[in-house]
Amino acid sequence: MVDMAMDGLAGPQFKLTEEQEMLVKMTGDFTADNITPVAAEYDEEAKFPEEIFHQARELGIVNMGIPEEFGGVGATVFEEVLVAEELAYGCTGISTSITTNALGMLPILVAGNDEQKAYWLGERLIEQGQFVSYGVTEANAGSNVVGIQTRAEKKGDKWIINGSKTFITNASHANFFTVFAKTDPEAGHRGMTGFIIDRDMPGVSVGKKFDKLGQRASDTAEIVFENVEVPEENVIGEVGKGFYIAMKVFDYSRPAVAAAATGLQRRALEESIKYASEREAFGVPIYQHQAIGHKIADMAINYEASRLLSWQAAWQVDNGIFNPRIPAYAKAFAADMATKAAVDAVQVFGGYGYMKEYPVEKLLRDVKIFQIYEGTSEIQRNIIVRELFKGNN
User: Fold this and answer.
1) How far out from the chain centre does Cα 102 lie?
2) Angle at the Cα of 46 from the Cα atoms of 44 and 52, rounded to 5 degrees
């Protein structure tokens, strides 16, 4: 993980291991060579980065969390966080497409049995290089996970699933889905169960992809299930435990989302430093004007703080500590500060920041979704309040 050594009176020193530094450099080089140069094109055309995905997979920075026994590299959440920041620096739309397998596989990773892991993670994702999408959100059940309406009814040795999921990342390209459905509608959060649904099962259909404001290189679409027959062996974990699995998934996934927002912040910061050094007003570079210089200073402060929170959230999960407050801190702060950084970067650039030929215009469009997906910023604060006041009522 992160080495913390005392250096006289200097306090703890945060230092990556040599292997982690190599991982960061490798991913940063990959991003510089394969993502940043094409980001504008993929955004303009809303083009799915399938070729880039497979290049990243061959490099070993896709499906990182799959254990070695199932063909993966068994990366830690912290290592996934390091990769997420580097990829998002280049383009958060492309990086979302590349990293969505990490989210889609998580229900199987945290609650699946060895047979499921060997087949769906080992054979389908590692060997065949397939895509998996995560299906929770519904048109009338976004933040309220317990309010999902997708229904699974047991008939004989199969489950019959009916319903739909919306805003599903990589849905148009996914070969299978991890989906949550109500198996007992009267049982509230205890009536939800996770399933693995193959795209080729009769009754599965994917709607037209959404035309989005930002992260346009990331495919987002609706999935519909009409009397889909799912075998018993595709149930993830225990029947009725789906809500608990979904909540645990968020503990694993939110640190990397926070890290992606952090990567966008770093891009906004570096673009602003470069522009404010070159652009002059009233005879001096504009960073020398306090109104501009302080905006950039705040970007730097918030970037470093966001990064440390995402690291802390990842460290916690890797060490078996499941406290939802910390991932909520990281996700809410990084998303909010990334949004502020993108807005401020456009302001630093002035009128040029509003033009597509400059990169900060895209950052502003891309960033907004960070305050919405993987739990809105408002929901993160609800989680924080709940955890802070636990036991006080």
Assistant:
1) 8
2) 105
**What element of type H or E holds 151?**
strand 151-155
Domains and CATH numbers, the chain: 2-127 (1.10.540.10), 132-242 (2.40.110.10), 245-388 (1.20.140.10)
Distance (Å, whole) CA 375 – CA 249: 12
pTM here? 0.94
- Residue 215 phi/psi, 5-degree rounding, is 45, 50
79 is catalytic: no
Find, among 38, 41, 34, 42, the residue nearest to 58 by Cα.
Answer: 34
Model confidence at 392, pLDDT cuts 50, 70, 90, reads: confident
Provide the pLDDT for residue 393. Answer: 62
The HSE-up count of residue 235 (CA atoms within 13 Å, CB side) is 20
Which residue is catalytic, options 79, 222, 361, 374? 374
| Token pair of 254 as six digits | 């939110």
Distance between CA atoms of residues 150 and 167, nearest Å? 15
Helix or strand holding residue 225 (H, E):
strand 220-231
Given a cut of 50, whether residue 10 has pLDDT beyond it is no
Is the pLDDT at 134 greater than 50? The verdict is yes
- Structural contact between residues 245 and 266, judged by C-beta atoms closer than 8 angstroms: no
Q: Are strands 158-169 and 284-285 parallel, antiparallel or unpaired?
A: unpaired
Residues in the chain: 393
Pairing of strands 2-6, 151-155: unpaired
What pLDDT does residue 187 have?
93
- Residue 289: pLDDT over 70: yes
140 class by beta-carbon count within 10 Å (0-12 exposed, 13-18 middle, 19+ buried): exposed
The single residue listed with the structure tokens 């990182």 is: 64
Burial of 325 (0-12, 13-18, 19+ CB in 10 A): middle
* Three-state secondary-structure class, residue 98: helix
Better-scored residue on pLDDT, 14 or 303: 303
Helix (H) or strand (E) segment spanning residue 165: strand 158-169
